[in-house]
Specification:
The chain is an all-alpha fold. The chain is built from nine helices and no strands. Helix 1 crosses helix 2, helix 5 packs across helix 6 and helix 6 packs across helix 7. This is TetR/AcrR family transcriptional regulator.
């Protein structure tokens, strides 16, 4: 029997930590999660956690991303409007469950914790914007969208109403609303 090397075990430990942080986040909310509780749940020392992450926010965000990456796939149907609709609709459906509810908690905590806000922007929202950017760039290259498109402004135009409802009005974010937003946006950016 071959002896296992340290690296796979380390990855297993890292995954245990990510799962523990995510489970605690879902069970108790961001404010109640501590590095001590994560360590206890993952059956590791706090030093082991700090070996990979600088603070609670970093490990919790990584745990969240690790657990949810499969739920928000990157669409590529051959149509920019369909891909944006799928991306936004998948996100809205995700928001409607308990896991997605965590996003509002993290954003709220980030209003008082600049370090957390920076982490979630870099780790979660910047990659989401990049996906939208790729979708719009594909639409431009296929001739579906105007060549002079301000991609950043278009992304804000599409996503702004989603976060306005999520964080301000609390109104429903359903498929009908998303279709209207995407249709209105694409009327202005089509070729």
């Amino acid at each position: 029997m071959e002896k296992k090397l340290g690296r796979p075990r380390s990855e297993e430990t890292k995954n245990d930590i990510l799962e523990a942080s995510y489970d605690l986040l879902i069970e108790n909310g961001f404010a109640a999660v501590t590095v001590e509780k994560i360590a206890e749940r993952a059956k590791v020392s706090k030093a082991t956690i700090y070996k990979w992450w600088p603070n609670k926010a970093a490990v919790v965000i990584d745990g969240f991303l690790n657990a949810t990456k499969a739920e928000l796939p990157i669409p590529d149907t051959g149509s920019a409007i369909k891909d944006i609709f799928i991306q936004v609709d998948n996100f809205a459906k995700f928001l409607s469950n308990r896991k997605g509810n965590v996003i509002t908690q993290i954003i709220a905590e980030g209003q008082h914790d600049i370090q957390l806000a920076e982490i979630y922007r870099k780790a979660y929202f910047t990659p989401r914007r990049e996906i939208s950017k790729q979708i719009l760039e594909r639409g431009i290259s296929r001739g579906e969208l105007r060549k002079d498109l301000n991609i950043g402004a278009c992304i804000d135009l599409i996503w702004g109403p989603i976060f306005y409802r999520l964080l301000i009005t609390g109104e429903v974010i359903d498929e009908t609303f998303i279709k209207e937003i995407v249709d209105y946006a694409f009327k202005g950016i089509r070729q």
